[in-house]
Amino acid sequence: MKYNESLVYSVIVCGLLILGFSSCSQSRPVGDEASTTDKKFIAGQTLKLASWESEPRARIMEWVDEVTKVGSSEFIPVADRIAVFDNDGTLWSEQPMYFQLAFAIDEVKRMAPDHPEWKNIPAIAALLDGDMKGYLSGGEKALLETVALTHAGMTTEEFDSHVRNWMKTATHPKTGKHYNEMIFQPMLELLELLREYEFKTFIVSGGGIDFMRAWAEEAYGIPPYQVVGSMMGLSYVDSTATPELRKTPDLFFNDDKAGKPVGIARAIGKRPVFAAGNSDGDYQMLQYTTTGEGTRFGMIVHHTDSVRESAYDRDSPIGHLAKGLDDAAKYGWLVVDMAQDWKVIYPYEFK
Questions:
Q1: Co-location of 144 and 250 in the same domain
Q2: Are strands 82-85 and 200-208 parallel, antiparallel or unpaired?
Q3: Is residue 67 located within the same domain as residue 202?
Q4: What confidence category does residue 46 fall into, taking pLDDT thresholds of 50, 70 and 90?
Q5: How many domains does the chain have?
Q6: Nearest to 224 by CA among 237, 210, 238, 245
Q7: Looking at residues 48-66, what average pLDDT do you find?
Q8: What's the confidence (pLDDT) of residue 125?
Q9: Structural domain of residue 142, as residue ranges?
Q10: Residues 329, 255: one domain?
Q11: 275 in the same domain as 186
């Protein structure tokens, strides 16, 4: 990489925060029947967590069995079964750039023909010319300009529509898949498993809350009101027949790193018992979750598969993972080796 990685990392993260984009379950059996059923799950005799290799699958299933079995010393009441998941790099891919940033760049390009004056803005001109190095060198100022030009004044409904349309048409430069097809099959199975055992599943992400709410329910089965993310400003406008909410370019809340436990407390109101992430941006969320009373579960998705997805951790400006790896054993977090522990990466890859 020829340009300064630390600059790119700080610019991308800052930009995403400023942009602010944001089957029926069955009740779990109880008693002896539940114990017998769960042993079958662990033995791999059913399709529970079918995309997982036996060791991580067994660890997850043993924990779920222990905390949901009536009479267990580690039993967690249904009301306290809160599971939180990061989004970028945990539930879907995030390379070569955060998908939300790809959306923002495409929005500039989509709107540019109607705004020839944008050629006079150096950072935007660089972006339109395909000069990402020049664009990123503009730092926070360039990203603020991007927001002001393409999002300020837009209603929440308009923004939602733009995100949904982008998901239908935009494709990833490496895989050729639509971005919402690049969700992780093993994580979909984990979400389904937890919900079957009456866990409530939440997204807690540094990404924009409005961006995620537009498509998360269809992709993950997580409704909009169970999405916690970074937020840009909103203004209530009642000058029309139908009052509206319009987006403003100021950052209202940063749901990243130490902000994640704050976001959990404000939006959920309970300390989770299960947390999954993939980067040091999730460290505090994992720490907050797993240091609570009783048995807890923390999990890190380690991107080790350069063939089927991407391999990165300590040296990556996106999805940087160092402290989480160093402290995983200290907190008892399961580190999922994507290359070794997942039989498939994306949906519809089964032979």
A1: no
A2: parallel
A3: yes
A4: low
A5: 2
A6: 210
A7: 97
A8: 93
A9: 5-20+98-153
A10: yes
A11: yes
Residues 49 and 184 in one domain: yes
**200 located within any domain:** yes
Q: 45 CB contacts (<8 Å, ≥6 apart)? A: none
Q: Assess whether pLDDT exceeds 70 at residue 42.
A: no
pLDDT tens for each residue of 221-272: 999 999 999 998 899 999 878 899 999 888 899 999 999 999 999 999 999 9
AA letter at 267: A
313 in a structural domain? yes
